[in-house]
């Protein structure tokens, strides 16, 4: 095929929009990747003629299923569950499971698409997938969550396996839910195998997995700052979310001498000008994991802090920002506020937390901006190491895994610089992550021919 016959970027995106009507998050994620990949492919005929990007942007399969469960009042409830298996060119499908009322097919398709590039960037053999359900764990008893998880796994088990697809946690899915789902998988299949990651340490989980995403996002920030001969020590940080990723990001910022000013949940944010130190972080972890409380309760415990109902934290002046809650939680106006207040670096613990026009604000202001698919890859990377340990039937120690995580994050940063250095000292980390992530998957797909 002659180069002039290639579908151009606007035509490609028109096709994506037409084939995925109303799937705004998925279209947004494809758009962000496609603009960089089109530049990269300009002189690479093989990728064009094999339709590589078109194929990556079409999930291998989307499984959708009914999940029935009985609540404590004996009402029968019906939810919808999904597993999106996006691409397994470089390894078994791998990616989290999200339980949240906002989960739709579009959200899971965007997450599975992003996961494909993220997993490639880690350098480990993992393809991209994502799953979930529109189930709201908030306010549910442990018994209700157990029954839901068991019912969810009763369908999911036939689509997954340690060499096929390995789910893990995400929003609303933590240690408790993974335990219930792993137990049900084991009951149905009579097999004890590494089919899920994020497991408890007693039954095949990995040291460092709970910390890995949040710590990794801070290591990525540390690497971006180091590239400019700077460090986290003495910096103020604004963080959103108060779940697994946010609390561990806060912990690592604190360990490196930074001061965390905010955390949030879907109700609002807390601002603590004295800094959210380790003791306060431990209190929040207990609040969220054991008491299942709200971040607003922080201000009753720690005087001097304020709670801002229904607001997001981006108006608080800071040196660095780490969005660690959910997608599209930081828009253009909020990005401008951060820049006007002097932010120098943004590292995304969440997946696609910044809107496309928000990303443009960061790029135009030439601040260091680490997109989720690079900055939060530490979580899935340690999941990959959990798979290796399960396959070997061995458990590595915390120190070894901690060192592997810092090395992995350094490696991801280096790949982003390799493909994202703009030549004027500015690194476009989005471009770097997209191209480096794409190249490995694309080359594997070329090797397979048309499959
Ligand atoms: P958790 O469920 O532990 O915490 C999620 C946090 O985000 C909670 O504070 C929650 O508040 C808040 N949140 C969720 N949805 C919304 C919303 N619609 N609006 C405002 N706040 C919201 O999840 P994680 O910490 O695991 O995940 C956070 C982000 O990190 C997600 O984008 C996830 O995809 C990403 N991620 C997670 C990884 C992991 O290993 N866990 C790995 C890589 C990325 P509330 O309690 O009120 O819902
Ligand atoms: O978005 C993510 O990378 C995750 N939720 C973690 C996936 C995993 O398989 O550990």
Could you give the count of β-strands? 12
Structural class: alpha/beta
Strand order of the largest sheet: 9-8-7-6-10-11-12
Small-molecule components bound:
NADPH dihydro-nicotinamide-adenine-dinucleotide phosphate, (2Z)-2-iminopentanedioic acid
Mean pLDDT: 97
Largest sheet: 7 strands, mixed
Q: What's the overall geometry?
A: globular
- Please compute the radius of gyration using only Cα atoms: 21 Å
Q: Which ranges are low-confidence, i.e. pLDDT below 50, for 5 or more consecutive residues?
A: none
Separation of termini? 19 Å
Per DSSP, the total helix count is 17
The string of secondary-structure elements, in order, is: HHHHEEEHEHEHHEHEEHHEEHEHEHHHH
User: What percent of the residues sit in helical stretches (DSSP H or I)?
Assistant: 40-55%
Q: How big a fraction of the residues is strand?
A: 15-25%
Characterise the protein shown here.
The protein is of the alpha/beta class. It is built from 17 helices and 12 strands. The protein has helices at residues 9-19, 24-41, 45-49, 52-56, 105-122, 142-156, 175-189, 209-227, 244-255, 278-289, 298-301, 332-340, 356-364, 372-375, 377-392, 398-420, 429-448; strands at residues 61-70, 76-87, 93-99, 127-133, 165-168, 236-239, 259-265, 268-271, 306-309, 320-322, 345-347, 368-370. It has a 7-stranded mixed sheet, with helices on both faces. The chain is globular and about 65 Å long. The relative contact order is 0.13. The mean pLDDT is 97. The structure holds NADPH dihydro-nicotinamide-adenine-dinucleotide phosphate (NDP) and (2Z)-2-iminopentanedioic acid. (2Z)-2-iminopentanedioic acid (2IT) is lined by residues 94-96, 115, 168, 170, 197, 351, 379-380, 383.
